[in-house]
Amino acid sequence: MFGNRRNHVGVALGGGGVRGLAHGPALEAIDAAGLKPVAIAGTSMGAIMGALYASGKTGKEIRQLTERHIVSRDDGLKDVYAKKDTLLTWLRTVRIAWDRSGLLKADGFVRYLTEQMAATCFEDLKIPLRVVATDFYSGEPFVFDSGPLLPALKASMAIPGVFVPVEYAGRILVDGGLSNNLPYDVLPDECRLDIAVDVRPLRERQNPDPPHMVTAILGMFDIMLDRMTRAKLREQPPALLFHPPIAGVHILEFDKAASVLKQTAAALPDFKAQLDQK
Fold it and tell me: Is the distance from CB of 141 to CB of 179 less than 8 angstroms?
């Protein structure tokens, strides 16, 4: 049974904006443990990282791709200059929508990441992938597992009021986190060892003053995701949960990407120990 479980691994990657960059190191640890997932499920940024992994990229390659697009405190001027082209590409990918349905369009960001994989459709992927979005009007999850990748990934990360919703199959679709932010229950039944990577923030007071408007709105979104996910974990937890204690980073604070990776790295030894025991 032990061997069978290791041969039937499913990985679920949760949503959390920039905190989802933690999925790269987590996938790298899964690779290092000799585990080969047979299915991936993802929400929002977890869907994007899951698509990269399902296309055949390793966890290490995904982490390295991420690191090429961020500036850390340890980078000198020479390091920043060497990254200038990828940093400019990152900045150009998200643009103002000038649309009353959202502030930003994610087309460029998602298209750029999908260009990093040799796949345009779910059928092109090396590992089966399920991507969660939310039907805005019914509030129910909508799961993509076939067809073109681009609309699925755009829909899964379409935070209402921030990114423009996606019209697909007669539905208006928004961020999957509103209905299922940690979709380990979406993995197929064949996955006897389900590993969930949860990037909800560690909520702690950072400032003695009340939050400003944007922080309050994003914080409200995080509170909702936290409550929903806690309830789900109590009812039916996955076989293995990795929840790195990422603090002080809101979903859209991409300037804190280096902090996400640093905080994730500090939690990896315990995760690796759990993987070795499975």
Answer: yes
